[in-house]
Write a structure and sequence with these properties.
The complex is a heterodimer of chains A (about 280) and B (about 425). By secondary structure, chain A is an alpha/beta fold. Chain A contains 10 helices and 12 strands. The two termini of chain A are about 25 Å apart. Chain B has 17 helices and 2 strands. Classes of the chains: A alpha/beta (about 280), B mainly alpha (about 425).
């Protein structure tokens, strides 16, 4: 236990980052982030590291603080306390635009697409390419095909309104839009929540493509099947606190569920009892 | 590497299905005209069909309907309403409404008449003042809507009453002011027609510009390795455009020809269409009408776009009022009154612009206004009074809105809004 940490809780960064010190510093790190809404403590002293080429799943029950965490990382919410660091440098994410500029792209659950606009128009909305005063449709269309091809997304045409696309295809469009600024971290908020089996598989493929492309990916979900399919690491939130940090390859499903629900193993030894049993680095 | 990889990945997994040559690109981006797929939007098709049906029916009852003389009159009547309807298209595209366009156009007509006749302003100054006044009214609506959150329905309804009161006040005790017949505004609106040679030159110029821009676009698309329209398609489409433009122009030239006012209206529609489709502002307009939250999160200047649309709408309404004052050579308390408001809004919707925002085109102002004035003209030729005209126009409007709503329901069946 580090002496400089005042509270009796187990220290966040030290035990977790120490074994992986050989890796480059995390692209995105949260340190001691807390956020309250009135009397509700949505996040309490949360630490999180996201590395390049890594899919970190954030799981938790309803009201565990997942959405607030997404808000903090995407710049929508400025936390009451705590620090956000990009490649070790503390940053202020004052607004979603700032977060985007710094290389954190967020695909929100509602995707924020305009259904009447076509794929190219949606991809470049607010960032249109122009030739003189008029839009350069050809450059935008070409870039749209390139991005969608990189994601291996099957879209019938980039010139159909988004309203005519399936849920999975729309997710692909939203993710492609997130990639426009070549972000370092992509945050996906419940990307499969409204999708069927096939489309979920499509989206999970997209997530893997993102990782292969070198992005750090934060996948917020409450679907354990999705998480186990693509995540490298599973971080559990419970009542606003970190309640476990598992290696996805070795963690047992029951342990993660126990950490989510607060059942037996997590109850005995404080909020992070599960963690020491699965320290990162032992398995990787 | 990127372009190579692009071609490779796209053609590998069923690339032909992903990018059939021109088929799935929309016509304005070098693909097939009017959308190739059956599931695409109906677009302008229902209106065009309605126009043809109306023409055939009225022609069957009265052979004067399709006479060049009547069609020239039809275009002249359409121009003033059309300019107002064009403004309505803009506010409808951002999902709002302006109920005061009739009153604002009446106020503008009164300003022109009083300014030029009673106050002795130069006519150009009076016309400019009227249009600027319209834009100011629109700016006020826009600010009230964006800053104070007053629904546009209510704020423009209030504006209607205010403008109506101002119109009566400006006109003063006489209630009616005649414009001199020799003033250029009256001559322009009533008697100025494009010289046949000029009209044909204009048609040729438009078709050449169209074909030229298509060829350039085709070359650029090909060098960008994108599906491009074939030369044959461009030729056929240019030929169709030539026929569509040339036939009516030649027919109108049998009589007085293409009215200058109507030509101005067409120019405004074409210009607005280009702004909407080819500029960042136009894209913002459609995005905001489609989903304002998404547009805001994409970083668009939502408020400014709203204000610009309200301003353009009211300014166009004022311009329509000025033109109608010229056409009638008078401004009175009835100018812009009675049914202009509803006719202009109906025209925009009948022409295919959605009441729910996000979908529509500047051309819907032209198509819709032609439908409405065809009905009016046809029924007048049949000696039927305005009661029937209101009823028929109302039924057509109901039909148009139903098509709009059904289309919206079909698409929102899959769209999370």
């Amino acid at each position: 236990m580090n002496p400089h940490v005042p509270s009796p809780r187990p220290t966040g960064p030290a035990p977790r980052t120490a074994p992986v010190s050989a890796r480059p510093p995390a692209v995105l790190s949260l340190r001691g982030v807390s956020q309250s809404f009135g009397a509700v403590r949505a996040l309490v002293d949360v630490d999180l590291d996201v590395h390049a080429r890594e899919v970190v799943a954030v799981v938790g029950d309803n009201g565990a603080g997942k959405s607030t965490l997404v808000g903090v990382m995407s710049g929508v919410t400025v936390p009451d306390s705590g620090e956000v660091m990009l490649e070790g440098v503390p940053v202020q994410l004052g607004s979603p635009a700032v977060a985007r500029q710094l290389g954190i792209a967020t695909v929100f659950q509602d995707l924020a697409l305009c259904a009447d606009l076509d794929v190219v128009e949606n991809l470049f909305l607010g960032h249109e390419v122009r030739r003189g005063p008029v839009l350069d449709e050809i450059a935008m269309e070409r870039e749209a095909w390139r991005l969608l091809a990189q994601l291996a997304a099957r879209v019938p045409s980039v010139r159909v309104p988004v309203a005519t696309l399936s849920g999975g295809q729309r997710q692909a469009v939203a993710i492609a839009r997130a990639l426009l600024g070549e972000p370092r971290v992509v945050i996906l908020d419940e990307p499969t929540a409204a999708l069927g089996v096939t489309q979920t598989a499509e989206v999970l493929n997209l997530v893997e493509r993102l990782r292969d492309r070198g992005h750090g990916v934060v996948l917020v979900s409450h679907n354990m099947a999705d998480v186990q399919a693509v995540a490298d690491r599973v971080v559990v939130l419970r009542r606003g606190r970190l309640n476990g940090d598992f290696d996805a390859d070795t963690a047992r499903y029951e342990d993660i569920i126990a950490a989510i629900t607060g059942a037996s193993p997590a109850l005995s030894g404080g909020s992070r009892a599960a963690q020491p049993r699965h320290p990162r680095g032992e398995t990787s | 590497m990127s372009s190579h990889g692009l071609a490779g990945t796209l053609t590998a997994p069923g690339g032909a299905a992903q990018r059939p040559a021109g088929g799935t690109s929309s016509w304005r981006h070098g693909g097939a005209p009017w959308g190739a797929g059956g599931q695409r939007e109906l677009g302008a098709l229902p209106v065009v069909v309605a126009l043809i049906v109306l023409a055939l029916v009225f022609q069957a009852f009265n052979s004067n309907f399709l006479s060049p003389d009547n069609l020239v009159n039809l275009t002249m009547q359409s121009a003033t309403t059309g300019v107002v309807a064009l403004g309505i298209v803009l506010v409808l595209l951002v999902g709002q409404i302006d109920l005061s366009v009739g009153a604002v156009s009446g106020l503008a007509a009164a300003v022109v008449a009083v300014g030029s006749v009673q106050q002795g302003w130069p006519l150009a100054v009076a016309v400019g003042a009227a249009v600027v006044l319209g834009a100011a009214v629109g700016a006020l609506y826009g600010v009230m809507f964006t800053r104070l959150g007053v629904p546009s329905f209510v704020i423009t309804l209030a504006g209607l009453l205010v403008a109506l009161g101002l119109q009566v006040r400006v006109l003063g005790s006489t209630g009616s002011i005649n414009l001199p017949y020799e003033s250029w505004l009256v001559r322009f609106s009533q008697q100025t027609f494009l010289h046949p040679v000029a009209s044909y030159a204009l048609v040729a110029g438009v078709v050449l510009a169209y074909a030229g821009s298509r060829v350039v676009e085709k070359q650029r698309r090909e060098s960008a390795e994108l599906a491009a329209a074939s030369v044959g398609t461009i030729v056929v489409r240019s030929a169709v455009l030539l026929v569509v433009l040339l036939a009516p122009v030649a027919y109108l030239n049998l009589n007085r020809g293409v009215g200058a006012m109507f030509a101005v209206f067409l120019g405004l529609v074409a210009g607005t269409d280009l702004l909407l489709r080819r500029t960042r502002w136009g894209r913002s307009v459609r995005a905001i009408g489609s989903n304002v939250d998404s547009a805001r999160r994409a970083g668009l200047a939502v408020r400014r776009v709203y204000v610009s649309c309200f301003m353009a709408c009211a300014a166009l309404a004022a311009l329509g009022g000025v033109l109608s004052a010229g056409r009638l050579a008078a401004a009175n308390q009835g100018t812009g009154g009675s049914d202009l408001n509803l006719t202009a809004i109906a025209a925009a919707v009948i022409g295919g612009t959605s009441l729910f925002g996000g979908r529509g085109s500047a051309w819907s102002a032209l198509l819709g206004v032609l439908v409405i004035h065809s009905i009016a003209s046809g029924l007048t030729l049949l000696n039927l009074d305005s009661s029937i005209r209101y009823i028929v126009t109302g039924v057509v409007l109901a039909l148009a809105v139903t098509i709009d709503s059904l289309g919206r329901r079909r698409r929102t069946g899959v769209a999370p809004r």
